[in-house]
Write a structure and sequence with these properties.
The protein is of the alpha+beta class. It has four helices and four strands. The chain folds into two domains: 37 residues; 68 residues, Alpha-Beta Plaits (2-Layer Sandwich), CATH 3.30.70.
């Protein structure tokens, strides 16, 4: 037999989780995001990059693209657009097979 307080406790837990989710979204994506933005910098080693494009696929804000120039090995390398929207998730650095990307927070 379940306690009559169980549905009440479960409801309170769900409301707390929703409040936290709203607060998180407001801080990182809402009006207060500009004040609390994490300053990140991505460095792409042009000589190591082979232009595979994996980093362009995983970037959630599409800030990385394939450039127009070639490096010393004859590969067209990736470029990062630094417009302040980078969250520093480092997915690009994790997926890079050539270890050509460094993310600085």
């Amino acid at each position: 037999m379940t306690s009559p307080l169980y549905p009440l406790i479960l409801t309170q837990v769900l409301i707390s989780a929703l409040d936290f989710s709203r607060e998180f979204d407001d801080i990182f994506y809402g009006k207060r995001a500009r004040r609390h933005r994490i300053m990140t910098k991505i460095e792409i080693d042009n000589e190591r990059c082979k232009g595979c494009g994996l980093c362009t696929l995983v970037c959630p804000h599409a800030l990385i693209g394939i450039g127009d120039e070639m490096n010393g090995s004859g590969y067209i390398f990736a470029k990062w657009e630094s417009n302040g929207k980078c969250t520093g998730c480092a997915l690009c650095a994790e997926i890079c097979p050539d270890i050509a990307i460094a993310v600085w927070k």
